[in-house]
Design brief:
With about 190 residues, this protein is mainly alpha-helical. Helices cover about 50% and strands about 10% of the residues. It has a 3-stranded antiparallel beta sheet with strand order 1-2-3. It is elongated, with a radius of gyration of 30 Å.
């Protein structure tokens, strides 16, 4: 007879993992991170579509597709905007540029942001649309956590404290229940 060893599967207790998720989820930022968050907030407040330097972007015009009759065949109304972040992205601070390089959906392998627009029949409107899309793309990449008010911080601390006390009370109750079961047995 051969014994077959079955692989053991680690058992995960959902209550323990849930507790870790609840109590370990919030991590307050360090002083350096807090300063960087403040700088990001300030930059985002000042960042408007007009603050993107037009000279840093290369614009390429081509014929648009779709409906428009003879206008589509004659006029180069489609606009392709290229912004090389490695050489011309100096208007974006380094701490924001890192996030843009990681998260932008318009980024190529050469660290260029390429945005196209042919929604309008007019070239000027498509240029403005490209710059609006570039602004939105940069803005979406930058994640800044919201500011927590003092009342909310106090409420969270109180909830955490109450939760820990409740857990310890339940733990003591379980312990006393189990110790009461042990007593009174005679040994043979």
């Amino acid at each position: 007879m051969f014994l077959v060893r079955r692989p053991t599967i680690p058992i995960r207790f959902p209550a323990v993992n849930a507790r870790k998720a609840l109590w370990g989820a919030y991590k307050s930022p360090s002083g350096k991170e807090e300063e960087q968050i403040k700088q990001k907030r300030k930059w985002l407040a000042e960042f408007i579509p007009e603050s993107i330097p037009r000279k840093n972007c290369d614009l390429v015009f081509s014929r648009a597709s779709g409906p428009g009759g003879q206008n589509v065949n004659k006029v180069n109304s489609k606009v392709t905007l290229k912004l090389d972040l490695s050489t011309k992205g100096d208007f974006i601070p380094p701490y924001v540029l890192d996030e843009v390089l990681k998260k932008s959906k318009h980024l190529t392998n050469n660290n260029e942001i390429i945005i196209r627009s042919d929604s309008s029949r007019k070239q000027v409107e498509n240029i403005e649309n490209c710059f609006r899309k570039l602004y939105t793309s940069i803005r979406e990449c930058v994640q800044v956590p919201g500011e927590t008010s003092e009342d909310t911080k106090k409420r969270i601390e109180k909830l955490e404290k109450d939760g820990k006390e409740k857990r310890l009370r339940e733990k003591k109750a379980n312990s006393s229940k189990k110790t009461s079961r042990k007593g009174g047995r005679d040994e043979f």
